[in-house]
Amino acid sequence: MSSHQPAHIVAHNPDELVAYVDGSYNKFTEEFAYGMVILENDTVIHEEGKKFKNEFSSMRNVAGEVYGATRAIEYAAALGKDVGIYYDYTGIEHWAKGEWKTNNALTKGYREYVAAVNTIKITFHKVAAHTGVEYNERVDRLAKQALGIK
pTM for this structure? Predict the structure, then answer.
């Protein structure tokens, strides 16, 4: 575990959900997946991993990252709860905020989706990858498990 980050991060706002997301890719099957863990008041209330093979597979794990962030926002919006997205791929925040160009259908769709969500507040928090951050490691495993990767 990194000495610079706690094992997990708790929302400062008790009404905010914490969502960790990560993506993975299986080069043999050309499938991508996301892993997602949702916490409320430091308690896991939902987790999932799901794989896909579609026109975005060429974006590899990045497609999984975007799908995971989108799913976390959908989940929080369905509950009417603000959400803090904890991610390790920086595009998740930069595309959402319009700070990076959206050069394809996946990133354009993601940017448009985030911009259209006006019922909840979404914040973004960068987490260092593969440094022992508990829930970041957990979503990495969930994404890999969805793909059948150990």
Answer: 0.90
